[in-house]
Amino acid sequence: MTASPPSDQVRAGQAIYLPWTLPLYDRVAFQVNCRLFFRVPVPEVVALFDRNVSAQHLDVGVGTGYFLDHCRTAPQQAITLADLNEHSLRHAARRLARFDVTTVQANALEPLPLPEASFGSASMNFLLHCVPGSIRQKAVVLDNVAACVRPGGRIFGATVLTQGVPVGAAARVAFPLLNRRGVMQNAEDSLEDLRTELAARFPEHTLTVHGCTALFEAEVP
Ligand SMILES: C[S@@+](CC[C@H](N)C(=O)[O-])C[C@H]1O[C@@H](n2cnc3c(N)ncnc32)[C@H](O)[C@@H]1O
Q: CA 91 to CA 115: how far, in whole Å?
């Protein structure tokens, strides 16, 4: 099956990741955005990876590969990186070159061109707030990623919400601008919808909130 070409809105969610912006990403994302706007402690996200990453891991929406570089990786670690953006893939693969890395260019809103039920774990960190639609619509990403994970395996990630969570003053200024540009696409994203979509798929799941960021982790049934 050939994937349909991504829409302009989907492209907008990954357009900012370029060879000259990626070297700045860690500083902007983790020292500015996480502290000032998302108000999530970065060590909480590292701990999320530590709890869930397995020896055969799939990361979807890779950015710079920061969390896989900093988390407690398994011995003989195999990592598959999937992203729509070729620059993110190249940057993260270079950073994680000490592992057994495979890259796949793919839109997470479409079924991923990977074997079904073949990974022990999969992350989609800070991805959902970059893709268009409400949480109900973008929850198809959960299905596409979970399809690649073995039953009993782990699926996890974080996403920034705007409804049903405390959004600070700085974020209330920044988020509309970022949403207008399509860098973030979370104007309708609510905690209630995320809880509903997780519960509909994963009987065993945990959802925690830090600032306006939701961290989720689940067992694939
Ligand atoms: C905010 S970065 C998150 C990077 C990393 N996971 C982290 O936690 O720092 C979002 C990543 O998702 C990718 N992305 C955006 N939309 C996507 C889509 N529809 N399908 C696959 N990847 C996408 C971007 O290219 C970028 O690498």
A: 24
Which CATH architecture does the domain made up of 8-219 adopt? 3-Layer(aba) Sandwich (3.40)
| Mean pLDDT estimate for the chain | 96
**What pLDDT, in 10s, does the model give residues 4-38?**
889 999 999 999 999 999 999 999 999 999 999 99
pTM: 0.97
Q: Is 152 left (phi over 0), alpha (psi -120 to 50) or beta?
A: left
At CA 143, angle to CA 141 and CA 146, rounded to 5?
Answer: 105
Pocket test for ligand 1, best of 130, 140, 185 (most atoms within 8 A of CB): 130
Query: How many CA atoms, within 13 angstroms, populate the side-chain half-sphere of residue 155?
Result: 27
Q: What atom of ligand 1 comes closest to residue 26's alpha carbon?
A: 9
